[in-house]
Amino acid sequence: MQRRTLLAFAAAGFAPALARAHHGWSGFDQDRPIYLEGKAESVVWKNPHAELMLRVSPGLAVPADLAKRALPAQSASVDPAKVVAATRLPTRKDPVWELELAPLTRMEAWKVAEIKDGQTIAAIGYTFPAEKGEAVMRVEYLFADGKVYGLRSSPV
Amino acid sequence: MNWVTGVPWVYPSLEVVHIVGIGLLIGSLVVFELRVWGLGRAVELHALARLALPISVSGFALALCSGLVMFLSQIDEMLGNTAFVVKMGLVAAAGLNAIGFHLRGGLAADDRFARVQTALSLGLWVAVVFCGRWIAYK
User: Which among A12, A45, A46 has the least Cβ separation from residue B85?
Assistant: First the structure.
């Protein structure tokens, strides 16, 4: 811990070089939901919100039955049908994306089992306008363990 | 520091303490500063200072302690966040301004420069709040 703290003070001058960041919903383009599927890596199951790296499956495609899947009700006013109808693949071809999930209290409310490295999951979510910047997705719907979770708010 | 980010209710609880600290710091400071600027002259300035300033300092202490724990639980993320780095600079500036005010004689130096320092103080702390909220959006 001592060494890390020393490095912390030294690194303060090099802050721009460190890439990790946190984002609210408003920084993302919520008019253009995208679909990703792949294997979870570097899962961080922690507050302020869980996150993971997703190694995208080769031959990624939006599932034909996506519109037929039952998306769960939640307290926030999200129109699942509208989101699904607008969901496309991202145009950028990054092999790895960073996925932002929800705070631990919300993951618990949905009873999402902690995702393990190597687990295959899928998600509908949003990235930055015009897909610029880093390959980061804020997850709206998480598909894991054969279930669907709405990560914007709590289940009703 | 796994318990800070790993136990679901801990991090939000730290944020609550942080916000209460902010409320005490700025709320009490504003009352004192308005009096310096001439509002509420029925209240004796030095007596008000003796009441209000320790409350502000206590608020700062709450914010500092809760902030330190949150920082130590995710050092890399915080150092990579521009809003956080700027916020720390502003906290330092606000602190130096406060120390400077008291080194100049505090309330004894009831002059224009001292009034500028109180205005600067408030401006700096509001900017700190702005940056603090922006951490989540950066």
Answer: A12
